[in-house]
Amino acid sequence: MENDRFSVKFWGVRGSIPTPLSTAQIQDKLIRALEQASPEDIKDKASIQNFVEGLPPEIGGCFGGNSSCIEVEIGGEHLVFDCGSGIRPLGLEWMGKEFGRGQGKASIIFSHTHYDHILGIPFFVPFYIPGNEFTFYSGYEDMHTRLEDHQNSRFFPVPFKAFASSIDFKCIEDGVECEIANAKVTNKLMYHPGKCFAWRIEYKGKVLIYATDSEYKKLGQNDLQPAIDFFRDADLLIFDAMYTFSEGLEKTDWGHSSTFIGIDLAVEANVKSIAFFHHEPTYDDFKLVEILDRSRKYLKLVGAQSNLDMFLAREGLTLDLLKE
Fold first, then answer.
1. What is the pLDDT of residues 257-303, one digit of tens each?
2. Where are the beta strands (DSSP E) in the chain?
3. Structural domains of the chain sorted by starting position, each given as residue range(s) with its CATH number in brackets
4. Contact (Cβ atoms closer than 8 angstroms) between residue 184 and residue 203
5. Which of 164, 186, 237, 238 is at a distance of 20 to 30 A from 311, taking alpha carbons?
6. Is 75 left (phi over 0), alpha (psi -120 to 50) or beta?
7. DSSP classification of residue 173
8. Global pTM value
9. Are 146 and 112 in contact (CB under 8 A)?
């Protein structure tokens, strides 16, 4: 297929609640940037532009404050994981395409229905455009009712029935294989309060795993084996690493994990790349980078021979698995 893609774009990477940058955080970034600047870096507008573009994201930008939303393009088909606040800017971009003309078609896969993963739904403009077609996939038989309740007039002024586009609901049972957007898709029930599903997408020999909001309560080999098998040979594992390892031990039953556990699973499963995702809202960008640095040291201890690539999920970052 000409111009074939299996691309992933991050639109929302925070957990629990959208987290905009504060004035203090912006000023801290400015101070750190100016400390690195030489007179040559700020002699004119072009020099300043080059200097800023060369700064690392934790100084010259940000990892992002929107809650969970990931866009996937598979062979010309549109797919979205979760509808956190990150889906609002995605919708605005799509309005400049076929979705703005009422000719768009997309699949939306839900991990679960906690607020941070569905709060962007009423603000996704393509839902209001007649002619657009959407299919909602989840592991819940009552998904339609859940979303209607979310937009009950007691909680939100616009009801779910106000959407003018076509929205179909399909429940995929745990472990059942199906075809979505030209790809083979399987889900797996994970440990999280209220249930959460991880999803595995396979297309042209490449594998993407979306495993947000999961806690690995028991760390024995037999306990972890089902997750290892599900993650096996993934080209990209998007992994909930909301806490540090010690915080994860303290916050048992909160339903989240850490970079260290993600590394253990990824090494055992022969994963090529892991994106640490669902960032804790109280962590600033420098804290996230500090955690990543510690995680790289941990990988050297437990998987010195591993070629695992690891990085922090960042809004706007786009990867094409067919080109990796």
1. 999 999 999 999 999 999 999 999 999 999 999 999 999 999 999 87
2. 6-12, 69-74, 77-81, 105-109, 133-138, 166-171, 177-180, 183-190, 196-203, 206-211, 236-240, 273-277, 309-312, 318-320
3. 6-21+62-320 (3.60.15.10), 23-35+42-58 (no CATH)
4. yes
5. 186
6. left
7. -
8. 0.94
9. no
